[in-house]
Write a structure and sequence with these properties.
Elements: H1 2-16, E1 20-21, E2 34-40, H2 46-55, E3 58-64, E4 69-74, H3 79-83, E5 89-94, E6 97-100, H4 117-120, H5 150-155, E7 172-175, E8 197-198, H6 232-241, E9 257-262, E10 269-271, H7 272-284, E11 289-292, H8 311-333, E12 337-341, E13 353-355, E14 372-374, E15 388-394, E16 413-416, E17 434-438, H9 440-445, E18 460-465, E19 468-475, H10 478-496, E20 498-499, E21 506-507, H11 510-520, E22 531-539, E23 545-553, H12 571-576
Parallel strand pairs: 1-5, 7-9, 7-11, 8-9, 11-12, 12-15, 15-16
Antiparallel strand pairs: 2-4, 2-5, 3-4, 6-10, 13-14, 17-19, 18-19, 20-21, 22-23
Helix pairs in contact: 6-10, 7-8, 10-11
Length: about 575
């Protein structure tokens, strides 16, 4: 497993006193302002780091003293080289993104924002008839859209399942994502606005002048803590903790407290400083579980010694690994259970692969992706970080979703994330994705509503009760699987936790939570034969269908394998005990 390989590599680098310094490869002229993320020496003096930064010509813009990370601005081309001489600093990297949440904007085909394959496959998907015998047993106990929530039925997170025993009351779940629409009627009752934070500032354009977040919605370019201009974070929060209120859906833990720990831009990119700040904030403020449904960019995989990368890029990736691991360690040590999406690249993380997508966010003008071989020594953050539960995605039939990354020793758990091709005719069906809350203002902006407020696309569903209407959208991805597992982790904290006398609510050991999730997960064997063929009938522009096949090899045992890890999370077993 990469997470353990890289722990050894980082430790070895620390022993040798290696200083990682990354500069841009563009043609930045002298005097042009640039930003770097600086990593202080572990256990060293912040004052010494400040002095070294100032001596090198830098100014601290933002600092996380808990783990020793700072964002620095400088006009000196010599800043990285000058910093190299100080023992107070062990890493310098260009200030750039470390993660990316899939873009969910289904209505806008010509958007310049990045959309991964899992979300792109929702475009044009038809809506089949969603049926469920389990959902029809007792409709009086269910939310209005429960019949569309095959995902909750798969893990036993239903009115007759986990809700009878545990609903997560008093447990705080942090949504490290693009924001949360705290005004959504199926979220607001569980949303803690006072405890929520936004660690980001909107970025209109990138180094090439390409739109990133677009024009700022607020004069400060800092969005309120109850706003989500992407939709991804709101969907995640709803999956975990939408309440039982006779409107729309119910989440896995319908009485949990939602805390927005926004680290993602409107466009879905995640920068290093906001991400580590969100994790340390979670540790300091009594957050019990965090969900991280994003994956690494601009480097999909971070490598410390890949010969395909020039030294400055190796340095940059090594610094990202160290800084993120410090933040993960800090949160874990402060009682935070860490759950992350496995990724949507349809690749085996335990094998050598080829990546042609990185770096996909230009930190300097003209920077572009290039092709490189990725050995197994490279690491994806945060899913391969120590203490993190990596979650793969299942479809309605419980097969591993066609897009989900996997690997024997990489996958920890699995959970429903949707698979629109998991159908009898192998054609896309939107109802085989995951339904959860959607900010109304985004549905309006994206042209998905009729003048009377009803949806004009099968990807959006409306639910009303006593004159109050909420909107919900179908998404698929490991980004949707991870929140299901995080929700079950919330139930575990509710069951195992004791009163938190410092922060209020409950607190449970992350190790105990992990043990309960793994021990109660439903074992799922590899398919027979283990080399599984996915067949998709992909609709073409001329109305014909193209047959696309891919093969994924499942390795391991029934109890633990590369498709399902220790199994599909089981909310009812966790809640009932």
């Amino acid at each position: 497993m990469r997470k353990y390989v890289m722990r050894a590599a980082i430790a070895a680098a620390s022993v040798t006193g290696l200083l990682w310094v990354a500069a841009g490869t563009g043609t930045a002229t002298s005097g042009q302002e640039r930003q770097y993320v600086v990593l202080y020496a572990q256990g060293g003096s912040a004052a010494a780091a400040h002095a070294a930064i100032a001596a090198a010509g830098g100014t601290v813009l933002d600092e996380n003293t808990a783990i020793g990370v700072a964002t620095v601005t400088t006009k000196s081309d010599a800043f990285p080289a000058a910093a190299r001489g100080s023992s107070a600093i062990v890493g310098v990297a260009r200030s750039t993104v470390i993660g990316h949440a899939p873009d969910d904007r289904l209505a806008n085909n010509n958007t310049s924002f990045k959309r991964d394959a899992a979300q792109a496959d929702l475009l044009g998907a038809r809506a089949g008839r969603a049926t469920s015998k389990a959902a029809d047993k007792d409709k009086k106990k269910q939310e209005p859209l429960a019949g569309l929530q095959w995902d909750m039925q798969q893990i036993g997170a239903t009115a007759d399942g986990s809700q009878r025993y545990e609903q997560g009351k008093g447990v705080r779940v942090g949504i490290i994502d693009t924001g949360v629409d705290g005004s959504h009627p199926d979220i607001t009752a569980n949303f803690d606005k006072a405890l929520s934070r936004n660690f980001t500032t909107d970025i209109p354009v990138d180094a090439n002048g390409t739109t990133v977040d677009g024009p700022c919605e607020h004069p400060s370019c800092v969005d309120p803590v109850d706003e989500d201009d992407n939709g991804h974070g709101t969907h995640v929060a709803s999956e975990i903790a939408s309440p039982v209120n006779k409107l729309g859906i119910a989440g896995v833990a319908p009485k949990a407290t939602i805390v927005n720990l926004r680290a993602g831009q409107d466009a879905g990119f995640f920068f290093l400083q906001p991400t580590v700040d969100a994790l340390t904030y979670a540790g300091d403020h009594g957050i019990d579980v965090v969900n991280m449904s994003f994956y690494v960019d601009p480097w999909l995989f971070n490598c410390t010694n890949n010969p395909a990368d020039p030294p400055e890029f190796q340095a940059e990736q090594a610094t990202v690994i160290q800084a993120m691991q410090r933040a993960l360690d800090y949160a874990y040590a402060h009682g935070v259970t860490l759950v992350a999406a496995a990724g949507n690249g349809a690749t085996d993380y335990t094998k050598t692969i080829v990546d042609s997508s990185s770096p996909d966010f230009p930190s300097v003008p003209g920077e572009a992706p290039y092709t490189r071989t990725i050995p197994t020594s490279c690491i994806s953050m945060p899913s391969e970080g120590n203490h993190v539960l990596s979650v793969t995605s299942t479809g309605i039939s419980t097969r591993k979703a066609y897009y989900s990354d996997y690997g024997n020793g990489y996958a920890d758990l699995s959970a429903p994330g949707g698979d629109v091709y998991d159908t009898a005719d192998q054609k896309r069906d939107i109802t085989k994705a995951i339904l959860a809350a959607y900010p109304k203002h985004l549905a309006v902006e994206r042209g998905q509503l009729n003048p009377d407020g009803t949806p004009n696309t099968p990807s959006v569903v409306q639910s009303c009760n006593k004159g109050v209407c909420g909107y919900y959208q179908y998404l698929q991805g490991t980004s949707m699987a991870s929140p299901h597992a995080a929700g079950v982790a919330v139930l575990a904290v509710g069951r195992l936790g004791v009163k938190d006398h410092v922060n209020g609510g409950k607190k449970a050991s992350p190790a105990a939570v992990e043990q309960l999730l793994r021990g109660t997960a439903t074992d799922h064997a590899c398919p027979t034969p283990p080399l599984f063929t996915y067949t998709r009938q992909v609709l073409q522009a001329d109305g014909t269908f193209l047959t696309v096949t891919t093969n994924h090899l499942c390795e391991g045992t029934t109890a633990n394998n590369g498709f399902y890890g220790d199994g599909i999370v089981n909310a009812k077993k966790v809640a009932k005990g």
